[in-house]
Amino acid sequence: EGFSFERRRLLLRGIHAGTGLLARALGEEEEAEQEPSETAEGRLIVPGSKHYTAVVVGLLYILPFITIHAIDTLKASLGLAGRLRRLLQAALMRKFLTFREDIRDTISTGDMSMAMTRDISEVVECGYMKLIKLICVVGKLCYAMIFILHENHLAAVPLGAFLVFGCIFLLLREPKMIKSTEDMARKQNNMVHVVHDVIANYKLIRDFNLRPFIVSRYEERIKDFNWRSTDTSVIMQNNAYLPPWLTTLLVGGYMIYGTFQVKALGGHLSLGAYFATLSVFKEVGNEMSEIYFEVMEVLKVTGPLRTITFFMNQPTFLHQHLQRNRKRRLLGKERRLAARRGQESGANGVAKTDAGEVIFAVDTLKVELKNVAFRYGTTPMLNGVSRDFGQGRLYAFVGPEHQGKATLLRILGGVLLPEDGDVFVPVHLRVLHVGREG
Q1: pTM for the full model?
Q2: SS3 state at 200
Q3: Residues 248, 124: one domain?
Q4: Is residue 57 within 8 Å of 45, Cβ to Cβ?
Q5: Locate the ABC transmembrane type-1 domain: which residues (predicted)?
Q6: 387 with 405: CB under 8 angstroms?
């Protein structure tokens, strides 16, 4: 992303126009010699001093290069892209770990993996970083156009044409380009899904001898991805030809129009000015092409940005847990104080263990379920369950399959939140749910 040769050439061309102004002011060109000295003096940047004018023009020639070099060096030394990737990837991982259980079950592992790796990298590299580069290119073009337009007002023609036609073209082509890139990313995700499924179910594939079927299925996914990739390449290739076409048409049109304005053909334009205008048309076209390509790169991240935004806006359990934990702390404080007062007054007797040891007041509090209800979709699993569990005992839930035993344990462990009813766990206790996967 350094200072490319084409960008440098345009900058030199723009400053060259300024040096031409200085040369005429210093009387070093034939045109300057034909002008009155007052006019030459009036063109000096520093009035009354040719020497300081030369110094200023020289500094203006060096300044853009120093500025862009400093920006590129600072950007590389700060590791801005790496910092942005770390920020987005850590934020998405943090968000994923707080998804509600029903939301997490519907999200594909492959989709989340590609969002954290490919999509975030594209958003950083082709989005944020390209925006910084785009600002530099636009600033450099504006700086060069100050000199170019001062020398040749016709340079405004290609500049205006690129702005108008480029914006219209991007508005018309943007939906198709974004849809194509999103489809290509979706096909690539399908390939990743197959790989994840094969790794997770390898024993079944081996036992049932499904290797040929899996390979054929994977080849179909690759074929779909290649087809979509080819379609996207064709779209991007056609988009890339807009700047060359526009530059060619502008140069060709000026050749048709400007040729008859040359003095040799009875016009008022000198041959040097004619060729200089052609050169300006081409160089402005080259610089606008670079801006156009950078804008296209930024627009391509719309799909990945939508995916990341979709995952970042999924509902989490944090708000529900916050409310329940506040209620749990408040209720736990009330019951702890009540148990302590009862123990101190001796109204309820002194609680002891089987070995005769005195139990602390907080250890007499029970884990309680009160009218707990839960359902999976439209299928009720628990309805009005009320039970309390004393501390220091071992409990076993026994019953037929699919009657809510595992669901009840998950509710006690905080993995699932009941749709109705309350679950009270003393504040000093921490319930750990270890599922079958553990």
Answers
A1: 0.69
A2: helix
A3: yes
A4: yes
A5: 80-300
A6: no
